[in-house]
Amino acid sequence: MEVRTDARAGRLVLVAVTAGALVSLLLGVYGKTHTPTGGAIALFGFGSLIQMKVWLALVTGVLVLAQLFTALWMYGRLGPLNRHAPARLGLVHRLVGAVALLVSLPVAYHCLWALGFESYTGRVLLHSLAGCLVYGAFVVKVVGLHGDASPGWLVPVAGGALFTLLVVTVLTSAVWYLGTQGLPPSTGY
Predict the structure, then answer these.
(1) What is the pTM (predicted TM-score) of this model?
(2) Which of 45, 83, 114, 186 has the fewest CB atoms below 10 angstroms from its CB?
(3) What is the per-residue pLDDT across 112-154, written as a single tens digit (0 to 9) for each?
(4) Taking a C-beta distance cutoff of 8 angstroms, is the pair 169, 134 a contact?
């Protein structure tokens, strides 16, 4: 029975990683072959595309740090605080993750649609690669979460990869922008 379970787990990992790789690859190919428009579709109340992208990326970054904190707490990695973990911590972790994903989508969409996959500097190439890989890592994590035969290591590894990729994406975009241009106003005035 254990061999059969190991085979199912191996197939699930293969399916998860393949699906994630395909999502990342398709995003990269679209970003590279699509002619960037340079314009915005929706600014969500912000005065410009750059304002919207920087502010929403910063919010995503804060939510990702909250994800790390709740994950460490759930896995018992916060020392004395572990004894006081609320019963609904898993629900909070999932909700924060869902909000982070939703807030990141307009940023990613506008990156691919308005700017495309670019490589004119090392920072921009790293940002483009990490940005495409984020959503592939998300797919791997979701497949791992919902797969009956998922090995115990898959979700933490996929979650760690997703966290790392999101941090790299935010650091090479919004944080870089803050360091070079300063904080953009949150409205169009």
Answers:
(1) 0.90
(2) 83
(3) 999 999 999 999 999 999 999 999 999 999 999 999 899 999 9
(4) yes
